[in-house]
Structures are given as structure tokens and as C-alpha cells.
Amino acid sequence: MKIYEYLTIKFTNFKETETVLKKYKNLEINILWTNQYLSLQGPHVMNAFKVLGRKKQVNLIAEVGKNIGLALTVIELEVKKMSISNNLDKDLTEKIKSLAKKKGIQVLITEKFKKIKNINDLI
């Protein structure tokens, strides 16, 4: 999948993310909401940032890691892309993928992203 090749930015702050998107406006970019961020702020905060996803070259991805509850919440919110850990139990992975598919959500594997950067590295 080509999406794994794009520059992937771990999200920490909306304003900083906007700055980076302006700086790299000609690149395909993945914005990765980390498991830690979503756990602290709550996955509902993602709705406020859907404005970033309107740009064709930006993929908004919720990283849920091995957190099953967070994965289910993200599926219910109908976020278009989510990323799970490769270390998640195989049966649980298949169940999450099945539920996500019913809602039209693309499930990615976090460990497959090639160019993950912290936003502070790019400003």
C-alpha cells in the first residue's frame, strides 16, 4: 500500500499541524493521532480536526494500538482510517477489521509506516 510510504506525522497540537501542512503542502501526508493523545483527550476530539482531512493529500489516521475499547469507539465515530498494532491478538485483529469493514473504515498496521516523525522534528 502506498499510504505506508507517505510522510507520517505524530499529532500533538492542531496549530503545529497546520504549520507543517503549509510547509509540506505538495506532499502526501499522514496525520497520526497517537494512542496516547486519543486516550488523554478522548477520540471525540477527532471530529474537530476533520477540516484537515478535506485536503486530498492528507490522511487522518487514528492510532489505537492494542486498545480494544478505543478501537471500538473509533469505529463508532466512523473515522475513515485507523491504525492497530501488529502485536494485537490475531482473533481480535480479525474482529476489529470485520467491524471496521462494515462501517467502511480502512484498518492499517502502525508498524508498517516507514517515515514516522514527531511534529517537533518538522517545525
What is the structure about, briefly put?
Helix content is 32%, strand content 24%. The chain is an alpha/beta fold and 123 residues long.
Secondary structure elements and their pairing?
Blueprint: E1 7-10, H1 14-23, E2 29-33, H2 35-41, E3 58-65, H3 68-76, E4 81-84, H4 90-102, E5 106-109, E6 115-118
Parallel strand pairs: 1-2, 1-6, 2-3, 3-4, 4-5
Structural summary, described in words:
The chain has 123 residues and is of the alpha/beta class. The chain has one domain: Aldolase class I (TIM Barrel). The protein is 32% helix and 24% strand. It has 4 helices and 6 strands; from the N terminus they run E-H-E-H-E-H-E-H-E-E. A 6-stranded parallel sheet has the order 5-4-3-2-1-6. Helix 3 (68-76) runs parallel beside helix 4. The protein is globular, with a radius of gyration of 14 Å. The mean pLDDT is 85.
Shape: globular
Q: What is the terminal separation in angstroms? A: 27 Å
Count helical runs.
Answer: 4
**Count of domain modules:** 1
Q: Largest sheet, if any?
A: 6 strands, parallel
Task: Return the CATH topology.
Answer: TIM Barrel
Weakly predicted, low-confidence segments: none
Rg calculated over all Cα atoms: 14 Å
Q: Which class of secondary structure composition applies to the elements?
A: alpha/beta
Mean pLDDT: 85
Quaternary structure of the protein: single chain
CATH class: Alpha Beta
Q: What is the chain-wise order of helices and strands?
A: EHEHEHEHEE
